[in-house]
Known about the structure:
Elements (H helix, E strand, L loop, with lengths): L4 E8 L2 E10 L5 H12 L19 E5 L3 E4 L32 E4 L11 E4 L12 E7 L1 H9 L12 E9 L2 H4 L3 H42 L2 H8 L5 H42 L5 H12 L6 H41 L3 E4 L4 E4 L1 H7 L1
Antiparallel strand pairs: 1-2, 1-8, 2-7, 3-4, 4-6, 5-6, 5-7, 9-10
Helix pairs in contact: 4-6, 4-7
Amino acid sequence: MVRPRVFFDVSIDNQPAGRIIFELFNDTAPKTSENFRALCTGEKGLSPLSERPLYYKNSIIHRSIKGFMIQGGDFTKRNGTGGESIYGGPFPDEDLSRALDSPGLLCMANKGPNTNNSQFFITLAECSHLNGKHVVFGRVIRGFDVVERIAEVPTDEKDRPRAPVVIANCGELMLRAQAQQKKPEAREASESPSDSDSEAERRHRKKRRHRSSSPDRSRSRTRSHSPRSRSRSHSPSRSRSRDSSDRERKRHKSHKKSKKEKKHKSKKHRKSRSEARSRSRSPSGARSRSRSPSRRSAEPVSETESQYDARLEREEKERIEAARKRELERIARRLKEEEERRAKENGGVRFKGRGRMKYLDPELQRDRS
Length: 369
């Protein structure tokens, strides 16, 4: 059983800080894990009680104690006094046997026994004094450095971060094999009309074969009873034996001709059938071509835990690199604007290079003159 994984994209003081990935213990705390997962995806929509989205996105980390924990999840009041579960109210504790014995554990915050809603906290150290009081339902598997950066943000006298720490985005990470399990059902539904078409084609083929065989037999019979053979049979100069041998010869010839005609017709029928198939399948999206890839894609691509972790790590590196490039571009733009502002304040004088050589901007000098 693969445990679900969810993520937070965190920003500190309106600057992207990184991604935190959690693994949820849905085997020991299924109700608590489902509550947290659904609040990460926002799939439950608006709350019937507060009429707010049941969604962690754009909520804040409202409490941070260095060396202890960081706390968030209050998307209704944003100060630690609110929060709401997907079940319409507080729900009971599930598993209190798991100890808070390491940093990076994801736990439910509460106001006492059986008062869980949406608030959570992440441990920064061992918290043995909280054992048996809070449900441990997950752990950080990627991005604990982001958690530590959040803990480094200066706080006020009420342990509230002075700079806003916001969950800019959140959601669930899916295994590729799970995402492709839904495709075979759609393929079976799409192939059902094609199977009925193939049955109709078989019936039509049998009918045509029956029709094509019947005229050949009638022709052979009519040829054997042609007026020429009748005249020969009625002529007194020829014997019965010769007449019968002629008839057998003609029957043999007519049989050969009918065989050739059958072969020729079957070839024509095959060609026409293949053309009809290509015509009927080409406008509907090339059914013959599309079937083979769909069958290949229907087989679920098995992805191991190590491959899954490697893919997540690669995606995280790509995201960090893109954020770094954006930050460098922003710094370059800011420096350029500052340089232009200084040049205007100094009357078009710029200092460039290592020796800070004086440079006069001709455009600004022209404007001054």
